[in-house]
Amino acid sequence: MLLSNYYFHADDNNHEALPLASEGFPYACTRNEMDRYAENSISWHWHAAVEITYVEEGTVRVLTPEQEMILNKGDAVFINSGVLHFFQAVDNCRCVLYAQVFDIHLLTGMYNSVFEEKYCSPVIRNSNLQAWKIHPESMTTVRMMESVLNGIELTTQEKEGYEFEIRTELGRFWLGLLKETEQIRERNPIRNSADVERLKKMMDYVSAHYAEKVRLEEIAAAAGISTRECTRCFRRCINSTPTDYLTQTRLRMAAEQLGQTDQSILEISENCGFSSAGYFSKVFRDAYGCTPNAYRHRG
């Protein structure tokens, strides 16, 4: 099933819960128009699934805590499991992305199989490989891109047996990824940053408590650090502040409720932790370029 403009949710463990079809077929494809999101961006998030995002239209900036890359129309990016990442349309241009997300066991079939140990683990477990840009310039990358596009088309049509074909295309993509990343995977792995692990814990707390009155001290306590170090950690990793991230999370959830419920603006404001409907309308307009009511009724 192809989903449009999906909003990320935190699951019971406060990680980003993805709309995977089922445990039997843990795969989903989403179509995202960036102008449907605050500040034309998909805010910082992560998930255990791996992700392949293709740029159908426009130019997008992709960030991880250690990388920055620019993707143009026709490019794609591989995002590894558990990696924090962020997307933003460049210069507020119209930008359309297709993201395929899947649990790695769709390819491995079972734990400790030859597919897992020989082919998938060398990528998943390599901390050097957070994200990898795919530009169709060599025979290998052209074939990888063909597999990406075939996967999107198969998801759109959902013909009989499409699950088999999607798994085949993902397998072909993965073999190309192994070949393209061989040199970087041979380097000594970099240890996971303590900052990133702390940041995840603090983001978890925000995702679980955004509807409440949240204090900086509580966000910092989630990672067992001081408020000063909390602010520094957000700055170092994602060039933001805890307060700004909290506001972005509240706005994201408010936008979803505007699109999917008939609750009043006041009710949504209260549900998402804003101090008043007037303040909510102001920050929403600043982020989305329109009022909450106009956002609800736009096509």
Residues in helices, as a percent range:
40-55%
Low-confidence spans: pLDDT under 50, at least 5 residues?
A: 10-14
Task: Give the ordered list of helices and strands.
Answer: EEEEEEEEEEEHHEHHHHHHHHHH
- Classification by helices and strands: alpha+beta
The largest beta-sheet arranges its strands as 1-4-11-6-9-12
Number of domains: 2
- For this structure, the CATH topology of the largest domain is Jelly Rolls
CATH class descriptor of the largest domain: Mainly Beta
* Biggest sheet features: 6 strands, mixed
Instruction: Let me know the number of strands.
Output: 12
Rounded radius of gyration (Å): 20 Å
Structure characteristics:
299 residues, alpha+beta, Jelly Rolls, Arc Repressor Mutant, subunit A, six-stranded mixed β-sheet, 12 helices, 12 strands
Structure description:
There is one protein chain. By secondary structure, the protein is α+β, with helices and mostly antiparallel strands. It folds into two domains: 2-186, Jelly Rolls (Sandwich); 194-297, Orthogonal Bundle (Arc Repressor Mutant, subunit A), CATH 1.10.10.60. The protein is built from twelve helices and twelve strands. It has a six-stranded mixed β-sheet with strand order 1-4-11-6-9-12, covered by helices on one side. Helix 3 packs antiparallel against helix 4 and helix 7 crosses helix 8. The protein is globular, with a radius of gyration of 20 Å. Mean pLDDT is 90; it is low at 10-14.
